Amino acid sequence: MNNIILEKIARLFLRVIAVMSVLLLLRGHNSPGGGFIGGIVLATGFIYYGIIFGSDRIQSIIYFNTRIWMGIGLGLVLVAAVIPVFVGQAPLTGLWYIGEWPLVGTMHIGTPLLFDTGIFVGVTGLILSVIITIMEVLKWNT
């Protein structure tokens, strides 16, 4: 497909969706949103991009193989589960670090955010793995 307008819109759409998915991730844990829905939204942006440009272009954008994405996601979830054990708490207990940052001010960063980020990366990798495989089987290259 050689439609310049559609290609420009697909690039812009992917960027907007990526920002929106990160906002959903950060809003997460105590409000609607989180890692799962953020990962689904990001994968949706990549799917739309892949429909326009093909699966090869998706793979060139994400840098790593989708299995590596899933592994990184599972690793982050494991780290979030194990960190509380090292301070004498039960696994998956929420721990918080309250710090002063020069430009932002006071920030509360905790293990739930690390857990949600792992889910975000893992879900995105899983959905992209399935979609890229389907696109390659159907020979969906433009």
Automatic annotation (TrEMBL):
Keyword list, A-Z: Cell membrane, Membrane, Transmembrane, Transmembrane helix
Location within or outside the cell: Cell membrane
InterPro entries xref list: CPA3_antiporter_subunitB, MnhB
Chief location: membrane
Protein's UniProt keywords contain Zinc: no
Pfam families, sorted: MnhB
Domain Na+/H+ antiporter MnhB subunit-related protein: 5-128
Domain of life: Bacteria
Membrane topology qualifier: Multi-pass membrane protein
GO cellular component: plasma membrane
Residues spanning the membrane: 12-29, 35-53, 74-98, 118-138
Entry's family note: Belongs to the CPA3 antiporters (TC 2.A.63) subunit B family.
UniProt protein name: Na(+) H(+) antiporter subunit B
